[in-house]
Structure formats: structure tokens, C-alpha cells
Write a structure and sequence with these properties.
A hairpin with a 3-residue loop joins strand 1 and strand 2. The radius of gyration is 20 Å and the shape is globular. A two-stranded antiparallel ribbon has the order 1-2. It starts with a helix and ends with a helix. It is built from 11 helices and 2 strands. Helix 1 packs across helix 2, helix 3 packs parallel to helix 6 and helix 9 packs across helix 10. With 300 residues, it is mostly helical.
Amino acid sequence: MNKRVIFGWILFLLGVISISAGGIILAIVYGFGCYMGGVEFVEMAKAKGYKPSPRIIKGMIIAFFAMAAIPTLRKLIGLPWNFALEHFPMLLLVGICICFIRLLFRQEERKPATIADIATTVLGFIWIGFLPCHLILLRNLQPPAEPPNLNPLLQPGLAYVITSVFTIQATDIFAYVVGKKFGKKLLYPEVSPKKTVEGAIGGFVASILVATICVYLFDAYFPGQPFHGKLWQAPLMGAAVSIAAQIGDLCESLMKRDAGMKDSSTIIPGHGGFLDRGDSLLFGSPIAYYWICLVVLGIL
């Protein structure tokens, strides 16, 4: 068994355990992955000659995940379900201000910070901190009108996350399989020379089917119907999340290509880096979160 398969199973099992447990455990595991993604992003920016602040990027990633995990404690200290959402703008403001002040008075470099240094710092903690932490919000999501379920395996947030992750993974897997077998027309060769239109369509169709199946099963077997019986919206959700996931994949490919890198790193044998494994989640997670809040639950 090669390293790719072994580490693929390790990542899969770690994902299953952390998503099932939810709460602080998921925030720590997924937050660590994004923290390492932030490290990879800094190296990517340095390869282009930019000098972002690693401390601000890594510190803000931790801050975003900590903020997203706070609703886990709402039963103990009476926080509203949307506490993190209400305070994200303030956290963004603090991060941007710290970024400007830190780089304005940076002493490590003889030359003052550049626009690119500031821009890449802000991009780093938004792209790899703010966006992916919505998966934690999604796992902690509890419809306000329903009593909380203390069993983590029966919480509606588990149904939301599994549906979203399965939809994203279906996009990635079937885009690869269909593209490899039937792909002829390149999707965007200037950014990703191997992705094909046929593969993108295959991933898109598969995500719609997987989302529909997941919504149907969770509403049938989970208490309280987490999707509130709105099966009609499942194909639309699958389509929206799939498009977001594929855009996220292309965006990471764009940055790697610009930096002259094949993979974001080699830290995961056979899989590249953390950004390579999680690029689809970066865009797919927030789209899934806001879709469920707006369309399914109608709470935003």
C-alpha cells in the first residue's frame, strides 16, 4: 500500500472522527489544518517576492476559528446562536488595523512594507481563516426554534456538514474520474492544464445527486428533519456548492501557478499540502453555510 493511500485513509478517519465529535475537537483539528495552510500560503507569497506577516496571518486564523467555536459554549454561558457572525466584522477590523500598523513599523526589513506585503497578509487570513471557519459555524448550527440535542451524532449541524462535505468531495472525485476518462476540452489551461470541461460537468452532476440523496436521508432518519423537508432545494444547493468548490480549486491553482509551485507543500506524502487537500472547502463551506441559513432555515 503506497503512501498516498495510507495518508488518504488517515485524513479520512481523522475527518470522520472530528466531524462526528464536533465542538472544540472539530475546531482544533480543522483549525490546525488551516493554520498549516496559512504557513503554506506565506511560503507561496515569498516565492513571488512578497513579504506578508506570518504572525498576523497565523494569529488571525487562530482567532477566526476560536470565534467560530465560541457558540459551542452557548449552552453554558447563554450566547446567541449568531454570536460569531455578529462579531466577525469586528474581528476583521482588528486584523486589518493590526496588519497596517505592524507592517508600517516593521523593523525586520530595511525597506518599508509594500502594498503587496499588506495585501497578501490580509488575503492570507481572509482566504484561509475567515472563509473555512464557516464549516465550524455549520457544525454548530442549531435552528433557534428547536431544543438543542446533546447527542453529537444526532445534531442537525452534523447533517449539514456531512451533506456539504460529501457534496464537495463528490465534485472533486467525479471531476477527476470523468475528466481522466472522457476529458477532451480543457477548462482553463492557463491556470490548471489538466482540468477539463467534461470533468467539471461530471463533478457538477455528481454533486447535485449526492446533495439530494443526503438531504433525503437526513430528513428521513434524523430527529426534527434538519432540512425541514425542503427536498426541492437540495439539487440547487448541490449546484451552488459544487460551483463554489470548483472555483476554490481553480483559485488555489492560480496562486500556485503564479508562484511557480506544483503543490502548496509536500507535508502530506502523496497528497501535497494542506491547501491542496482543502482548497475546495475554502469556498464551498461558506456557500453551504449561508445557503442553509437563508434557504433551509430562513434565519438570516
